[in-house]
């Protein structure tokens, strides 16, 4: 897989979002998670994305255990400020003390002495972004992290943060059916020379065309509470996705590959991080890095699957209140 620049890093054009290996989409068998991580290395993935909150630390522990022998040849990204307390409640704390604590704990779980890219997972509404950035800059000065990132933030927050210390990457949801980043954030990142890392680039699996019903979602699957998968929206959204799947077939690609190729063809500063627990899908996603699209094809894709055609917000109300980014 060819490489792209991300701050001071050179990473595979497509990274691996690791959340689903421990969290969010039902249980993943640990043995299967290990197979996915090891196979990803064979396929050329070298950019692995995790967070302290994923599985309340178990995701970082998994990556630390499996990837430690390969540490010198991979890039590890993790996130702070968002975590689960002893009762499982999600807490956002961007204070200096908490960010230092979380970084030390993540380093231990990841079995490494430095994290290549460390994101502020959510902006804390009770802590000024300047305080959080000063804390992250201290961690970098101490040699515990190499690059600073932000997740789900607005253009204004990016500018304020970047004025304190250069930001290497901004991560947010960005896909054919979630294009809020195009309103302002992408332009701001490009103006400031900041890379952009789209998560959920395949619409939490919906844009593959393979999800025909929500009935199979487990009780722990976060999509059960997401508006776009709700009973009053799912059928409508599926019909839109089916039109996209028809176009993908006409263009000679499967839908997941086409969604990733669309992102990669939008700019060489984009590094999407699809997640999967399936080895076949892992290989299909990797091959998307070799697909070139014409401007006419991109326009056709964006017309068939436009966010204005989609029903529902990308998060439930509680999730929308957590984010600082353009929706």
* Total count of helical runs of at least 4 residues: 11
Spatial sequence of strands, sheet with the most strands: 3-4-5-8-9-10-11
Sheet/helix structural class: alpha/beta
Q: Approximately how much helix is present in the residues? A: 25-40%
Mean of pLDDT: 95
Using the 3D structure, state the CATH architecture of the domain at 3-203 and 267-291: Alpha-Beta Barrel
Let me know the CATH homologous superfamily of the domain at 3-203 and 267-291.
NADP-dependent oxidoreductase domain
- Large-scale geometry: globular
CATH class of the domain at 3-203 and 267-291: Alpha Beta
Radius of gyration, taken over Cα atoms and rounded to an integer in Å = 19 Å
N-to-C series of helices and strands: EEEHEHEEEHEHEHEHEHHHHH
What proportion strand?
5-15%
For the termini, the CA-CA separation is 31 Å
Short description:
The chain is an alpha/beta fold. 39% of the residues lie in helices and 15% in strands.
Please render the helix and strand layout as text.
Blueprint: E1 3-6, E2 9-12, E3 16-17, H1 30-43, E4 47-49, H2 58-67, E5 75-80, E6 82-84, E7 90-92, H3 96-110, E8 115-120, H4 129-141, E9 145-151, H5 155-164, E10 169-173, H6 185-192, E11 195-199, H7 231-251, H8 255-264, H9 279-287, H10 295-304, H11 317-322
Helix pairs in contact: 1-2, 1-9, 2-3, 3-4, 4-5, 5-6
């Amino acid at each position: 897989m060819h490489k792209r620049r991300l701050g001071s890093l050179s990473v595979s054009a497509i990274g691996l979002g690791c959340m689903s290996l421990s969290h969010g989409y039902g249980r993943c068998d640990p043995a299967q998670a290990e197979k996915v991580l090891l196979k990803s290395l064979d396929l050329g993935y070298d950019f692995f994305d995790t967070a302290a909150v994923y599985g309340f630390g178990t995701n970082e522990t998994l990556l630390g255990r499996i990837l430690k022998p390969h540490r010198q040849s991979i890039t590890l990204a993790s996130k702070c400020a968002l975590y689960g307390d002893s009762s499982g409640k999600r807490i956002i704390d961007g204070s200096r003390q908490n960010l230092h604590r979380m970084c030390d704990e993540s380093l231990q779980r990841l079995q490494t002495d430095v994290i290549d890219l460390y994101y502020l997972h959510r902006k804390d509404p009770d802590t000024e972004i300047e305080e959080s950035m000063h804390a992250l800059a201290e961690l970098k000065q101490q040699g515990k992290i190499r690059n600073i990132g932000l997740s789900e933030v607005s253009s204004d927050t990016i500018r304020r943060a970047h004025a304190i210390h250069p930001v290497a990457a901004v991560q947010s949801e960005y896909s054919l059916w979630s294009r809020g980043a195009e309103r302002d954030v992408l332009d701001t990142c490009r103006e400031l020379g900041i890379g952009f890392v789209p998560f959920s680039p395949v619409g939490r699996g919906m844009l593959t065309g393979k999800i025909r019903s929500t009935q199979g979602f487990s009780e722990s699957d976060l999509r059960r509470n997401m508006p776009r998968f709700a009973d009053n929206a799912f059928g409508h959204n599926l019909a839109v996705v089916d039109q996209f799947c028809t176009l993908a077939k006409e263009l000679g690609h499967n839908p997941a590959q086409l969604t990733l190729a669309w992102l990669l063809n939008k700019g060489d500063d984009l590094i999407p991080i699809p997640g999967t627990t399936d080895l076949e899908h892992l290989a299909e996603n990797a091959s998307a890095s070799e697909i070139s699209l014409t401007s006419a094809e991109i326009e056709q894709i964006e017309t068939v699957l436009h966010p204005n055609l989609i029903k529902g917000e990308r998060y439930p109300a509680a999730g929308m209140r957590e984010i600082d980014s353009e929706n």
